[in-house]
Design brief:
With 337 residues, this protein is an alpha/beta fold. It contains 16 helices and eight strands. An eight-stranded mixed beta sheet has the order 3-2-1-4-5-6-7-8, sandwiched between helices. Helix 8 packs antiparallel against helix 9 and helix 9 (205-227) packs antiparallel against helix 11. The longest helix is centred in the middle third of the chain and has 23 residues, at 179-201. The protein starts with a strand and ends in a 15-residue tail after the last helix.
C-alpha cells in the first residue's frame, strides 16, 4: 500500500482517486477551493463535476498543501493545465528529493510552449516526473468501465511503478519512454476535437468527422516528429486513441464547446455553457505557435485559432480547409510512373 495524494479535485482527479483507493492505497485529495473540500467531506461525492461516484469514508480531503505533499509516496497532479505552474510553485517547498509527481492533466503552456511535465520539472527540480494519459473520460473511469492508459517516464522503472500503482481489472496501463510524444498528443487532440465539435454543430456528418480525426493525427504527428518525439506514439493510445474518444464522446467538453461554436456561440459563450475548463482553447494558441516555430503545416489548428480568436465563422473555416491547394495524402510514397 502506498500513500498517494491527488492534487486537484475535479472530475478526473476524483475518478483516479477512486481507482487508487480501490487498488488498496491510502488516498488524500487536495483542492485550493474550500467549498470544494467542504462538499467532498459532507457528501463524499464530487456533486458538481462527477455526480453519482461515491468516495470512500476513509479518504482524506484537505486544503492544506503541506499536509497533502510532505511524506507522500506519490503525488498525482490533476489540476487543469492553466493552473499547473502556480500549483507546482505552491507544492515546491514541501516536495522532497526524488519524490514522484505524476501529471495527469493535458495541455501546453501558451506563453512558454512547455508541456506540463516540463513546467513541473522547472518549478520543482528536485522531483521525479511521470505522465499518465490516454483515451479516458472520468465519467467512465469513475464507475469502473474498461479503460486503457499509458504511463510515460524517462526511466523504465518509474513508468512501471506508475503502471503497477494504477493498473487493475478495469484499468489497463501500458508504458512508454516518449513523454514528449504523449503530451503533444494529449494536448493537441483537444484542439482537433474543437474542430470535430464544430462540424457536429453544423450537422456535417460522419464523413467530415472521420476526415478531421485522420488529418488531425497527421498534423499532430508532423509536429511531434519536428519536436523530436516518435510518430508511433501519435498512432497509439495517447494520440489516435485519445483523439477518437475526445472527438466522439458525449462526455467530451472540447467537442461540446466546438458544437456550440458550430451553432453560432462565441468562444466565451461556449466555455461558459460547458462550465468546466475547455483545455483545447488554451492549447490552440500554443499549437499554432509551435507550428510556426518548427515550420510545420497544421491547417486544422490554424482554422480553429481563426474561429476562436479572430471572429471567423466555423462554416468559413471548413470551406477554407476544403478549398486549400491540392495535395497528395502521403508525401513519402513514390509513384511508379
Amino acid at each position: 500500500m502506498a500513500k498517494i495524494s491527488m492534487i486537484g479535485a475535479g472530475s478526473w482527479g476524483t475518478a483516479l482517486s477512486v481507482v487508487l483507493h480501490n487498488n488498496g492505497h491510502e488516498v488524500t485529495v487536495w483542492s485550493a477551493l474550500e467549498p470544494e473540500i467542504t462538499m467532498l467531506k459532507e457528501h463524499h461525492e464530487q456533486v458538481e463535476k462527477l455526480p453519482g461516484v461515491k468516495l470512500p469514508e476513509d479518504m482524506v480531503f484537505t486544503t492544506d498543501i503541506e499536509l497533502a505533499v510532505r511524506g507522500q509516496d506519490m503525488l498525482v497532479l490533476a489540476v487543469p493545465s492553466p493552473f499547473t505552474r502556480n500549483t507546482a510553485k505552491t507544492m515546491a517547498p514541501y516536495v522532497s528529493e526524488g519524490q514522484l509527481i505524476v501529471s495527469v492533466a493535458k495541455g501546453i503552456e501558451e506563453d512558454t510552449l512547455m508541456t506540463l511535465s516540463q513546467i513541473i520539472k522547472e518549478e520543482i527540480p528536485q522531483c521525479e516526473v511521470a505522465v499518465l494519459c490516454g483515451p479516458s473520460h472520468a465519467e467512465e473511469v469513475g464507475i469502473g468501465l474498461p479503460t486503457t492508459l499509458v504511463a510515460g517516464a524517462k526511466k523504465k522503472s518509474t513508468a512501471e511503478l506508475v503502471q503497477n500503482t494504477f493498473m487493475n481489472e478495469t484499468l489497463r496501463i501500458y508504458t512508454s519512454p516518449d513523454m514528449l510524444g504523449m503530451e503533444i498528443g494529449a494536448s493537441l487532440k483537444n484542439v482537433i476535437a474543437l474542430a470535430a465539435g464544430m462540424a457536429d454543430g453544423m450537422g456535417y456528418g460522419d464523413n467530415a468527422k472521420a476526415a478531421l480525426i485522420t488529418r488531425g493525427v497527421a498534423e499532430m504527428g508532423r509536429l511531434a516528429l519536428a519536436m523530436g518525439a516518435n510518430f508511433e506514439t501519435l498512432s497509439g493510445l495517447t494520440g489516435m486513441g485519445d483523439l477518437i474518444v475526445t472527438c466522439e464522446s458525449k462526455h467530451s467538453r472540447n467537442r461540446k464547446a466546438g458544437m456550440l461554436m458550430g451553432q453560432g456561440y462565441t468562444m466565451q459563450e461556449a466555455m461558459d455553457e460547458v462550465k468546466m475548463v475547455v483545455e483545447g482553447v488554451f492549447s490552440a494558441k500554443a499549437a499554432i505557435e509551435l507550428a510556426a516555430k518548427y515550420q510545420v503545416s497544421m491547417p486544422i489548428v490554424e482554422q480553429v485559432n481563426a474561429v476562436l480568436f479572430h471572429d471567423k465563422s466555423a462554416k468559413e473555416a471548413v470551406k477554407d480547409l476544403m478549398l486549400r491547394n491540392k495535395k497528395v495524402e502521403h508525401d513519402d510514397l513514390a509513384w511508379q510512373e
